[in-house]
């Protein structure tokens, strides 16, 4: 909003009111403008979030036991040889589920809700604390 005002009406930032105060594009001003001028209110789509299993502690303990037995039986003694890899999605263009719509609207359409621009980052570290180089995987 500040960029828009600076481009379209920069004199608003230079002018002073009758009591000497200058215009400030505060959060309160923006919220009031969006509601009063556009009749927009924040809206969000709903979706169930990923949940932690009830037996998460038990699963972690069992994973620790399996890993301990594997390392013992395989004779792996050097921590540099124990490596944990994981991957995570890195979103370049977020497909937000929030938008503004006229208050009272029953349907809130969001263009590109199912689309996302992202790549996968594979990260790894050894038990000795050495971080391995990150591998980035792009589509195609």
How far apart are the termini? 38 Å
Low-pLDDT regions: none
Largest sheet strand order: 2-4-5
How many strands?
A: 5
Helix content range of the residues, please? 25-40%
N-to-C SSE string, H for helix and E for strand: HHHEHEEEE
* Largest sheet features: 3 strands, antiparallel
Q: Report the C-alpha radius of gyration, rounded.
A: 26 Å
Structural class: alpha+beta
Organism: Coniophora puteana (strain RWD-64-598) (Brown rot fungus)
Protein name: DDE-1 domain-containing protein
Question: What's this model, at a glance?
Answer:
With 140 residues, this protein is of the alpha+beta class.
Structure description:
The longest helix has 19 residues. A hairpin with an 8-residue loop joins strand 4 and strand 5. The two termini are 38 Å apart. Helix content is 30%, strand content 24%. It has 2 domains: 38 residues, no CATH class; 62 residues, no CATH class. The model has no long low-confidence stretch (mean pLDDT 85).
């Amino acid at each position: 909003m500040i960029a828009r005002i600076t481009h379209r009406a920069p004199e608003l930032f230079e002018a002073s009111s009758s009591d000497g105060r200058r215009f400030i594009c505060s959060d309160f001003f923006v919220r009031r403008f969006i509601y009063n001028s556009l009749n927009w209110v924040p809206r969000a789509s709903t979706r169930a979030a990923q949940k932690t299993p009830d037996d998460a502690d038990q699963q972690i303990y069992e994973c620790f036991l399996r890993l301990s037995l594997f390392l013992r039986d395989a004779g792996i003694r050097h921590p540099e040889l124990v490596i944990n890899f994981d991957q995570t999605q890195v979103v370049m263009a977020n497909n937000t589920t929030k938008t503004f719509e006229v208050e009272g609207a029953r349907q809130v359409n969001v263009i590109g809700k199912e689309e996302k621009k992202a790549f996968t980052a594979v990260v790894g570290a050894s038990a000795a604390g050495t971080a391995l180089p990150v591998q980035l995987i792009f589509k195609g």
